[in-house]
Structures are given as structure tokens and as C-alpha cells.
Amino acid sequence: MPHPDLTLTPAGPALAPRFRDVPRTRPAGPYRRLFALPGTRAFTAGNLVARLPMGMFGVADVMMISAAYDSYALAGSVTATGLAVGSVTAPLIARLVDRYGQARVAVPATLYAVLGHVLMALWVHERTPVWALFATAALTATAPNTGGMSRARWAHLLKGDPAALHTANSFEQAVDELCFMLGPVLAAVLCAALFPEAGTLAAAALFLTGVLLFAAQRSTEPPVAARTAAGSPLRVPGMGPLLAVFLATGAVFGSMEVVTLAFVDGPVAGPVLALQAAGSCAAGLLYGRARRSARLRTCLAAMAVLMTLPLLAASTGSLPALAGGLLIAGMATAPTMVTGMGLVQRLTPPAQLNEGMTLAVTALLAGIAAGSATGGFAADHAPFAAFGYLVPAAAAALALLLTAGLRTATLTGTTMRD
User: Fold this and answer.
1) Is 290 exposed, middle or buried (0-12, 13-18, 19+ CB in 10 A)?
2) For residue 10, which phi and psi values (nearest 5 degrees)?
3) CB atoms < 10 A from the CB of 385, how many?
4) What is the CATH number of domain 234-418?
5) In Å, what is the CA distance from 318 to each residue of 96, 322, 376?
6) How far apart are CA 346 and CA 207, in angstroms?
7) Percent of residues in the chain assigned helix, strand, coil, to nearest 5
8) Which UniProt key words apply to this protein (predicted)?
9) How far is residue 320's CA from residue 340's CA, in Å, rounded to a whole number?
10) pLDDT digits (tens, 9 = 90+) for 82-129
11) For residues 120 and 200, is the Cβ–Cβ distance under 8 A?
12) Residues in a beta bridge with 12
């Protein structure tokens, strides 16, 4: 049967439309469908600019402080102070975002944080007493959770469409990995090529610009929900055990970074470590095209297995083998984080979504700090070269064991549909 658009006219085939002239349509991919929604490209672009500095500040501050005071211990202590204070302030700021709106809270919170980073660069340049650095690090902890706000917008726009929300969460995780892959490299280049404070100042400028662009996109901002008498999302059944899983998962990331830097010990360490983020970024984009999300337990089981690859590769003493092991091991990261964040979204009441996701990020950051300290200790006291890689492997196994504390209902991924 001829195609209706190719039916011959009474005048003959010469007047019939040619096949190549007939518009052919094909189903849009899941990511193309996401960004066909009005306003999504604009808020995503702004959020990307705002999120890139999250991968820059740590490296930039360490390089800046260590160059001025000749002490990596001081640099690590100052950055750890900001992280510790942020674990307290971040959920509070997220609660204000839920209550008063993203633009109304994120902009002033960002201004305070940027002021703190600028003052930090000034104090370091002037070699002020170290107590001023610790006090200023606390001021930088007012930075809002830009990734959480972006995920909250997707949850609002894609309400009732779990398949599209799964794709959006996968995209957001890929963006996280991209920022933590490019941010440290950019910060290191700026500090080395220009002056020690350049990385921190550039990150502060990008952060402020990105948040202003993001906040200006009011059409996609979730509406402020009516106030309820509900307490903290910590009281939601299943949230506590899930945050414990995030804590252990963060220890995987923190220990892997420090152990790899110590094992490689040279300028190649950064690019080698970036391969883990590259593997996660690629896996996140592929996972977003999946028709179904996996169980969190399944993702963590895969991570526990794959985290043994860097240990085995390092035991051979081959740097290319280690690079390949990190690339493959990283592929378990994004699916695990996407599935875990999806569970947080399901457990958290809609009116407290920013706070719930920020609690998850806070648990993750606390795990990263603990993993960094443990990995550093293992690297310094290793009886053999690859010993440190036992820490991320053990942390991944612990995260898997902790899923036993979750209810069966929270472990099942949502079935996806076209």
C-alpha cells in the first residue's frame, strides 16, 4: 500500500512529491524531550555555571593557603572547617528555600558565601593571622545547594512522569561528575598560571554569576508550598538508614581521591583521578536512557564489586591498569547516586524537597571528609603500595550492608515508562 504522502496525482508521477521531500519524523530521545520543555535550557545553563565552582573551591583554597603559609595541614584544616559548618547550615538554608522560594533565599545566601571567599583570598594575600582564615571559612558555608535546587525544579516540572524524572536525575548526576572532573583542573591551572588567589576569585565570580542567572528563571521555579506542621525530613521512616548509606558512599569517594593522589604522587594524579568521574558521567547519561531504574541494593552491589578493581590494578604497579580500573569503577557511581536521590525524592514530602536532598548531600559530604581522613591515614601507614585502596572497597561493602536497614518498599526502583 503506497504511503499516503506519496500517492500519485492525476497529472502523473512527475508532479508527485519526491520521497526526500517528505518530512520524516522520528521519536525524540529522552534528553531531547527534557529540554523541549520551556525554560529548562535556561535554568540548566545558569545552574551549570553555578555548579562548576563546587569542584574548584577545595583545590583552589588548598593551593592558595599552602602557597602563602607553606602548610598543607593548615590548608586542609581551613577547608575542613568550612565543610563542617556547612553540614549544619546547608539543611537550614534549604529549609528556608522550601519556605520562601529559591530566588528569594539563594541570592542573598550566595552573596554572603562569595563575600567569604573574596575575604579569604584577601586575608591569604595579606598573610593575616590564621584565626581569620578559620572565621572566614565559616562565612563561606552559606552557599545554597545548587544541585538540589535544580533537581527540585525537575521534580516540579515532571510531576507525574517518573520516566522523565529518572532521565532528569541521571542528567543532573552526570553534570555533577562533569563539574568535579573539570573544576579541579581549571582551579589548578588558574592558580599555577596566574597567581595563587586566582582560582578562588574565579570560582567566586562564576558562582555568583551562575546563581543570578539561575534565580532569574522564575517561570520554572517551584511554587512555595503551604506551611505545614511537619518536622524535619529526618523523621520520615526510612530516611535515617538512607542517609547512613549516603554517609558510607561518601567515604568511598573521599578515600578513593586521597589514596589515588598518594599512590600516583605527581602531576599525572589529577588526570588519572578524573577518569573515575569520566566513567561515572558516561554511565549516568546511559542510565538516563534506561526504561527502568535499578534497586539501590543492586547498584551498591555493583559498586562493591567494581571498587575492588583499583585495588587489584594498583597491586600490579601499573599506572595504565590503575587508570583503567578507576574508569570502570566510576561507572557504578552515577547509577547509585541517581537511584539514591530518587529514593530521597520519594521519601521527602514535596514541601520539604530541597531540605531532604540537602540532608542527603550533607551526609555525602560528611562521608567524603571521613573517607579522606581514613584514606590519608591508610596511605601514610600502608604496609604495601596498594593498601590504601582497601578503604574505598571496604566503604562500598559497608554501604551495601547498610541497605538492610531500609524498608523493602524503599529499595524497589520506580518502574519507568515511555
Assistant:
1) middle
2) -55, -25
3) 13
4) 1.20.1250.20
5) 50, 6, 21
6) 29
7) 80, 0, 20
8) Membrane, Transmembrane, Transmembrane helix
9) 31
10) 877 877 888 788 878 878 888 888 899 999 999 999 999 998 888 888
11) yes
12) 9
The C-alpha cell at 208 is: 555568583
**Contact (CB, 8 A) for 269 and 261:** yes
Rounded Cα gap, residues 19 and 304, in angstroms: 53
Please state, in angstroms and as integers, the Cα–Cα distance from residue 108 to each residue in 122, 132, 138, 222, following that order. 21, 22, 16, 18
- What are the cell numbers at 319? 599506572
Q: Which three cell numbers stand for residue 340?
A: 539514591
Average pLDDT over residues 53-65: 80
Radius of gyration of the chain (CA): 23
Residue 160: strand, helix, or coil:
coil
Q: Which residue has the cell 578493581?
A: 309
Q: Which residues pair with 9 in a beta bridge?
A: 12
Q: What is the pLDDT of residues 253-297, one digit of tens each?
A: 878 877 887 787 666 766 777 788 788 878 777 777 666 667 888
pLDDT tens figures, 314-338? 888 888 898 899 889 888 888 888 8
How many Å separate Cα 398 from the centre of its chain?
21
Place domain 39-222 in its CATH homologous superfamily. Answer: MFS general substrate transporter like domains (1.20.1250.20)
Measured distance CA(102)–CA(173) in Å, rounded? 20
Instruction: Round to whole Å and give the CA distance between 340 and 338.
Output: 5
Give the integer Cα–Cα distance in Å for 129 and 36: 53
Beta bridge partners of 292: 415
Q: Which residues pair with 283 in a beta bridge?
A: none
Q: Are 347 and 239 in contact (CB under 8 A)?
A: yes
The segment(s) of the chain belonging to CATH 1.20.1250.20 are: 39-222, 234-418
